[in-house]
Design goal:
The complex is a heterodimer.
Chain A: H1 2-28, H2 32-58, H3 62-91
Chain B: H1 2-35, H2 42-63, H3 71-100, E1 109-114, H4 120-132, E2 136-142, E3 147-152, H5 155-164, H6 166-175
Helix pairs in contact in B: 1-2, 3-6, 4-6
The chains are: A mainly alpha, B mainly alpha.
Chain lengths: ~100, ~180
Amino acid sequence: MLAIDIIATIFMAAGAFFMITGTVGLLKFPDFYTRMHATGKCDTLGQVLVILGCMIYEGFTFITIKLLLVSAFYILAGPASTHALMKAGYVTGVPVWKKGDKRM
Amino acid sequence: MEMMETRQNHRTFKFALTFCIMFIFWLLLSAWTIYLPEPYDFTKISRGVLVALIVTFLTYEIFVPSRGEKVLFKLRRFIAYVAWELWQIYLATIDVAKRVLGILPVDPQVITFDTTLRSDFALVTFANSITLTPGTITIDVEPEMGRYTVHAIAKEPADSLTVDQTMQKKVGYVFMEE
């Protein structure tokens, strides 16, 4: 029981670490597009790791299958929503930051 | 006459297959509410059958692909591809984390390139894969040319798409559109 708790905690802590990194990137990066890099990628893995931790903590029940489906949907929907925001920004002409420019 | 009969059989097969999958899916999602209170609660099961029937009626035409598309063959390659993709998600997050912490540089650029992919599913898979792999996000896709506009966070991720083309080859191999 204790071993399962520890493994679940490690997974959840790793997930939380990636989510925090994504948030720091959102605040630190210079423009809209690079900020989307930080949030779009770190969120996917962070979410999946947290859900994996929950699955290990709960043991194998029907809830495990639901959590698995949630994470599968997240892997599909995360990139799609990131792409939608990127395209909306690009079409409406949000400027792209180049190395050496001022922060936007 | 015979051909019409086979087509009818094929439709029935599609309907039955979709219904089975939908009902199993419903069981997976809500079976615990059935077997906990009473062993055989027919009201609840009949509700599940009804919902599965409605969904089947709406989607069976598109849910099962038509003949001659080599679905099982592609599915086997696709599962191997998904395993590789999960590893890429891990690498992508590490890559972004390094850039956030200042270990790797940030030098963004927008690139455009053509691919050999044409079918909807291949285009979507490749667009999602670009977003999930290290350092690149899809901005736009033109389905007729298979042309992708991609935002790369530095030069190396952009080169991996335009020069190495590992992922194009993998997706092309899965969907047999090389």
